[in-house]
Structure to design on (152 residues):
């Protein structure tokens, strides 16, 4: 993937120097999550803990979430007081529908800044046999809810 990205960026006149960290996630985090030496570009993943903008947008774009010295998830080191205040305001909304609309609007606004760029979206194939019942895919996670799966 790094070679393909390097070639694609080269077409745009951007020279990318890959700095492989191997498959060790601790070694990757030591580079990508440390504000002192974060690279300009890194491949990372993120998934929300529950279906809302709060566990997704807050750690990645709230400037107050920047962690010095390692463990940082705000890889752009983005700190806009207006966005921070908007996150606080949305977190106070008790109507879930209204909150989700506000999270969506903030997400769209942040997306236009291209602070993070989605490179791919994984698609998983899920199969099950005829001897299994109560199988359904969670609309949020796209995986089986194994708490309800059983054998016929």
């Amino acid at each position: 993937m790094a070679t393909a990205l390097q070639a694609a960026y080269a077409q745009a006149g951007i020279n990318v120097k890959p700095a492989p960290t191997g498959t060790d996630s601790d070694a990757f985090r030591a580079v990508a999550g440390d504000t002192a030496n974060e690279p300009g570009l890194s491949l990372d993943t993120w998934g929300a803990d529950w279906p809302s903008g709060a566990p997704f947008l807050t750690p990645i774009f709230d400037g107050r979430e920047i962690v010095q010295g390692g463990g940082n998830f705000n890889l752009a080191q983005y700190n806009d007081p207006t966005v921070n205040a908007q996150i606080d305001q949305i977190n106070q909304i008790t109507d879930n529908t209204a909150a989700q609309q506000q999270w969506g609007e903030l997400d769209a606004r942040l997306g236009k800044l291209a602070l993070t760029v989605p490179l791919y979206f994984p698609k998983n194939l899920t199969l099950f046999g005829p001897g299994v019942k109560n199988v359904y895919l969670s609309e949020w996670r796209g995986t089986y809810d194994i708490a309800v799966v059983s054998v016929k």
In short: Strands lie at 132-133, 150-151.
